[in-house]
Specification:
335 residues, Structural Genomics Hypothetical 15.5 Kd Protein In mrcA-pckA Intergenic Region, Chain A, Pseudouridine synthase, 3 domains, nine-stranded mixed sheet, four-stranded antiparallel sheet
Length: 335
C-alpha cells in the first residue's frame, strides 16, 4: 500500500502547485500534473484538479501516489553479483554489457529483468513500469557498483541523496594522452547534441537554456608510454580517477572527450587506436592490438558510498575493474 504524501506549505508561496510538488517529491512536473488532473490531490480535505493553482502558506497538500502497476518487463533468471542486500535496498556490481532498464532495442535481458526475478514483488514502484527501483544507472558498457531501491521509502531517500550530491562516487577510466593539469575539476554544462540525439555535448557558451550543470573532479593515477604522445614528453594513455559531483548522462565521457582526452574504446565520443603506438616491438604491438580490440568505453564505477536512507548506517562499496579492463591496463603499463 502506497502512503500519501502530505506536506504543509511553509515556503514557495505563489508557485504553481505542479512545480512546487515536483521540487518536493520524486515525481517529475509532468507526472505531478497528470496525477492532479486525475484527482490524486487534496488541498485540505477538498479535491484539487488545477495544476496551475498557486500554493498559499499554511495549505495542507495531500498527494495520493498511484498504485504500483505490474511491470511490463518479465522476470528473467540472470545472475547478479550482489555486494549487499537488506529489505530496503540492494547493491550490486554490474557487468559491462548489461543494459540497466528496458528500452528500444533492449526489451529484455536487462538488469531490471534480473531484479524482477531476484526481488520478486519487493522493488520500489516510483521508477515507473520500466524502471522499478532504479535510482541511478550506468551505461550499458560501463561496469561497477550500483544501488537499487526495494521500497518507496528507500527510493525517496536515495533520490534525495543523489539530488543534494551527498553520494560518494569514484570511477576509474583509461583515457587517451594525459590530462593537464594532472588533477583538477571540469565544470562545464552538458546539453543534448544538436547533431546526434544519442549524444551529449559541452556547452562552452555557458548560455544554452537546455544545458545542465555538470561537475567532474579528476586525478591522474598512472601514465603509460611517457614521451611517446603527440605532445613532447606526453604519455600515450593514462589511468584517471573521476569523482562525480553531479550525475548527467554520459558525464565523464563527455567531459573527458570534450577536453581532449576521450576514453579508450569509446566509439561514441572517441576514436579507434591510440597515437604513439606505431612501433613494431612486441610490447608496443601488444598494446596497440589490445586498444584496438577493446570495444567499449574503458570506464568502471569503482566506489559507491552513502548513508543508508532508512537505517542511517554508513555504506561503502568498492570493486576492482573487470578482467578486460585489467588486461588492457597491464598492456599499457608494460609500455
Amino acid at each position: 500500500m502506497r502512503q500519501n504524501i502530505d506536506i504543509t506549505v511553509t515556503e514557495g508561496t505563489g508557485e504553481r502547485i505542479d512545480r512546487w510538488l515536483a521540487e518536493r517529491t520524486d515525481y517529475s512536473r509532468t507526472q505531478v500534473k497528470t496525477l492532479i488532473k486525475e484527482g490524486a490531490l487534496l488541498l485540505g480535505d477538498q479535491p484539487m484538479t488545477d495544476p496551475t493553482h498557486k500554493v498559499v502558506e499554511g495549505e495542507t497538500v495531500s498527494l495520493t501516489p498511484p498504485p504500483v502497476k505490474d511491470a511490463t518487463p518479465q522476470p528473467q533468471d540472470i545472475p547478479l553479483d550482489i555486494l549487499f542486500e537488506d529489505e530496503h535496498l540492494i547493491v550490486l556490481n554490474k557487468p559491462a554489457g548489461l543494459v540497466v532498464h528496458p528500452a528500444a532495442g533492449n526489451w529484455d535481458g536487462t538488469l531490471v529483468n534480473a531484479l524482477l526475478h531476484h526481488c520478486k514483488d519487493s522493488l520500489s514502484g516510483i521508477g515507473g513500469v520500466a524502471r522499478p527501483g532504479i535510482v541511478h544507472r550506468l551505461d550499458k558498457d560501463t561496469s561497477g557498483v550500483m544501488v537499487v531501491a526495494k521500497n518507496d521509502e528507500a527510493h525517496r531517500g536515495l533520490r534525495r541523496l543523489f539530488s543534494i550530491h551527498d553520494i560518494e562516487r569514484h570511477y576509474l577510466a583509461l583515457i587517451h594522452a594525459d590530462p593537464r593539469p594532472a588533477s583538477g575539476t571540469i565544470e562545464i554544462p552538458i546539453a543534448r547534441s544538436r547533431k546526434d540525439r544519442l549524444k551529449r555535448e559541452l556547452d562552452w557558451s555557458f548560455e544554452r537554456s537546455d544545458a545542465r550543470e555538470a561537475i567532474t573532479h579528476y586525478k591522474r593515477l598512472e601514465a603509460y608510454g611517457t614521451g611517446r604522445g603527440k605532445v613532447a614528453g606526453e604519455p600515450v594513455a593514462s589511468l584517471v580517477q573521476c569523482t562525480l559531483e553531479t550525475g548527467r548522462t554520459h558525464q565523464i565521457r563527455v567531459h573527458l572527450s570534450g577536453t581532449g582526452h576521450p576514453l579508450i574504446g569509446d566509439r561514441l565520443y572517441g576514436k579507434a587506436g591510440v597515437a604513439g603506438l606505431g612501433g613494431t616491438d612486441d610490447i608496443t604491438v601488444a598494446a596497440r592490438e589490445g586498444v584496438r580490440a577493446f570495444k567499449r568505453q574503458a570506464l568502471h564505477a569503482a566506489i559507491l558510498g552513502f548513508d543508508h536512507p532508512v537505517t542511517g548506517d554508513t555504506m561503502h562499496f568498492e570493486t576492482e575493474p573487470p578482467d578486460d579492463f585489467q588486461a588492457l591496463r597491464a598492456l599499457l603499463q608494460a609500455l
